[in-house]
Amino acid sequence: MNDTDDRPITFYRLQGCPFCERVARLLEEYDLGYRSRFVEPMHSERDVVKRVAGVRTVPVVVDENTGVTMAESANIVDYLESTYGDGAAASAGGDD
Ligand SMILES: N[C@@H](CCC(=O)N[C@@H](CS)C(=O)NCC(=O)O)C(=O)O
């Protein structure tokens, strides 16, 4: 069975979570391919995200493009903006 998937960002989220919606909007805005993984509503049962990121809160983003795993919506927003937003073009414009 071949289960390859070329969307390199995995987004751990919860239905109706405003912090997750903020991240989702940015992923959509930057047209980034991502997989959603909806976590258990019960905080104590979120072992998957705990294993991946060391926390039980969502949102969490795992970006295979850069090897970054990140929690906290404000940090994720900053990360996405600086990696994929306008700031990325500015800071990538380096050497030549
Ligand atoms: N400061 C966090 C808050 C995230 C948060 O509170 N997420 C809720 C779902 S909307 C959650 O996972 N709650 C479980 C908990 O607080 O342990 C962020 O901005 O990402």
Automatic annotation (TrEMBL):
Coiled coil: none annotated. InterPro entries: Glutathione_S-Trfase_N, Thioredoxin-like_sf. Gene3D superfamilies: Glutaredoxin. Residues 7-88 form the GST N-terminal domain. Signal peptide: none annotated. It comes from the Archaea. SUPFAM superfamilies: Thioredoxin-like. Pfam families: GST_N_3. PANTHER family: THIOREDOXIN FAMILY PROTEIN (PTHR45288:SF1). This is Glutaredoxin. It comes from Natrinema saccharevitans.
